[in-house]
Amino acid sequence: MSELFADLGNPEVALPVLAAACAYAAAVVRGRRWLAPLCVLGALGGAAVAVSLVKVWLGRPGPLGGVNYYPSGHTATAAVAYGGAALLLCLSVRRLPSWPAPVAAVVLTVLCGAGLVWRGYHWPLDVLASLCLSWVLLAPAAAAVRRGPARRVRAPRHSRHGDPSSADEGDVPDTGGPGPATARPDS
Q1: Which domain holds residue 92?
Q2: What digits encode the pLDDT tens for the residues 119-144?
Q3: Does one domain contain both 8 and 26?
């Protein structure tokens, strides 16, 4: 059973789940379909690079001997792939409750980490470091997906008489809030 749990972090298992979620999100999401999958795939690429660099830099020995065990690449792959898939599903599927996908992502990631420690492939700190690293990489991707690209809206300029309706319009960045975007005095 522990081998099955540890295998949840294998790229052959986790990446098809993420690929399916990316394809679904790209097919369903309106507007810039590529943005959400691109953000999540960027987080996955960032995790792979960061884990590789830290492993080589520290060269920490593992429980079975050898070096370069810290942090766990399998845990990072599981956390970002399943977490990213959950993010994409929450973004794409509006009719379902939002909690099942993130809960499933957390359960699969925790099972993967527990299986790696149980089998003796990693120390618990290896798994914990990967969980922290994955959160640091996935949180900005989630923020970028939720916010989306900055839109530009047309806001009226004030005329000489103070009547905004008679003035020409200019480009003003959209602040994302309700109503027309206006310049803040502190900016």
Answers
A1: 2-147
A2: 888 888 888 999 898 989 898 888 88
A3: yes
**Which two structure tokens, joined as six digits, stand for 77?**
């792959």
Q: At what angle do helices 11-28 and 35-58 cross, to 10 degrees?
A: 160
Contacts by 4-7, CB closer than 8 A, 24 or more apart = 4/115, 5/111, 5/112, 5/114, 5/115, 5/116, 5/118, 6/74, 6/112, 6/115, 6/116, 6/118, 6/119, 6/121, 7/115
Measured distance between the N- and C-terminal CA atoms of the chain, rounded to whole angstroms:
57
* Structural domains counted in the chain: 2
Mean pLDDT of 101-105: 90
CA distance 32 to 21: 16
The answer to whether 175 and 181 are in contact (CB under 8 A) is yes
Token match 């200019």: residue?
170
- Look at 74-88, 112-126, 160-174 and tell me which has the smallest mean pLDDT: 160-174
Report CA torsion sign: 177, 21, 38, 10: positive
